[in-house]
Design brief:
Length: 370
């Protein structure tokens, strides 16, 4: 481990159990330094604070891997164009971040930590700005009109929007979405289809708890409404050069990116067996099962294994989808894709580790309730 990485991780460990306080201090300092920045952020900052910390931790965790570090930060820079981020904003952020870390590390803060975070942040800012510059030919976000909206269950909706300008993405990636029902609140959702020539994109959304955006997208959105879509992010995409068989594990609306990848596979796959595990609480939440079973009939290489965790006697596999995956296999020579809630992804990753599936062959995306 190089000294920069070691110092970053060591100092972050000093404040990790006070992440919320660090984030609150950071935003307060940033908005005091540049009050105009407050207008770029939503009124409710709880989730935004978590997103800052996720970005910091992700950056720290990838600093030892220059390729991943660069790719992640360039995509983050492209994504932040939706906030109309300017070069001077990075200076304000650095000042606020260092002040927050310095405050909550207290007497344990050292000149070595100070220099490491300055150097580390400069690398982060430079990579993000390169990503933004590389994306200068695209708009900061795309306008899209909702053309169809369908409730599939008590809290799940599938809707289709049409972008006003071409938006390129790979199946498996995700886009940040903003609706006028909750201005300045951006939430990540994965397209449920491969890129289409007509510019339409399908999204699957579940409204859960206090999810401000998800509730609006499920219960309020209607044809004719306009959305904003930010630049695509994420690396949970297919490797066309791989010849290994595939395991897809989807929890709830985590099915969306997997459905997009299935659509791509349908166009060229002939010799890779695909096992698709779909988990839900009950049969009502298996909102797209009919379509999936029809695809399995059409493509002999596809097997669909649905499971319900809380619907005894429904007729299929029972239990958490992570446990169901463990009852099949082995999967140690497969490419594995996992998509769903953070808890579902963690449980599935534990099962895959127990089955000795190499981590290099696993790709995943986890989104909370938003």
């Amino acid at each position: 481990m190089n000294s920069l990485s070691h110092l970053l991780k060591e100092s972050w460990a000093l404040v990790e159990d006070r992440q919320d306080k660090v984030a609150s201090h950071f935003y307060a300092r940033m908005f005091l330094s540049d009050p105009q920045l407050r207008d770029l952020f939503p009124v409710h900052m709880d989730v935004q604070r978590a997103r800052l910390l996720d970005a910091i931790v992700s950056s720290i965790q990838t600093v030892d891997d220059p390729v991943r570090f660069g790719e992640y930060l360039r995509s983050l820079g492209r994504d932040h164009r939706k906030f109309h981020t300017e070069p001077q904003h990075y200076e304000t952020v650095r000042f606020a971040l260092l002040d927050a870390l310095r405050t909550y590390c207290g007497e344990q803060w050292s000149p070595a930590y100070e220099q490491a975070w300055r150097d580390g942040y400069d690398q982060i800012a430079a990579a993000m700005q390169r990503g933004a510059e590389e994306d200068a030919g695209n708009p900061p976000y795309w306008h899209a009109e909702v053309v169809a909206h369908e409730r599939r269950s008590r809290d799940i909706a599938v809707f289709t929007c049409h972008t006003m300008q071409p938006l390129e993405y790979e199946a498996g990636q995700y886009l940040s979405v903003e609706t006028h029902y909750q201005p300045r609140l951006w939430r990540p959702y994965s397209p449920a289809n491969a890129r289409r020539s007509d510019g339409t994109i399908d999204f699957h959304v579940r409204a859960v708890g206090a999810g401000w955006v998800s509730s609006a997208l499920v219960r309020k959105l209607q044809p004719g409404d306009m959305l904003k879509l930010a630049a695509p992010m994420g690396s949970m995409t297919l490797n066309r050069q791989s010849t290994r068989d595939i395991v897809f594990v989807a929890g709830g609306t985590g099915l969306a990116p997997i459905k997009a990848m299935l659509e791509v596979l349908a166009g060229y796959n002939r010799n890779r067996w695909v096992n698709l595990f779909v988990g839900a609480r009950d049969r009502d939440d298996l909102y797209d099962l009919e379509t999936l079973l029809a695809a399995a009939e059409r493509f002999p290489w596809l097997q669909v294994i649905p499971a319900c965790s809380n619907d005894p006697g429904w007729g299929g596999e029972e239990g958490n989808i992570s446990d169901v995956v463990g009852r099949y296999g082995p999967w140690d020579n497969h490419d594995v894709f996992v998509s769903g809630s953070p808890d579902m992804v963690k449980a599935t990753m534990r099962t895959l580790a127990e089955l000795r599936v190499p981590s290099i062959r696993i790709k995943y995306d986890a989104f909370g309730d938003m």
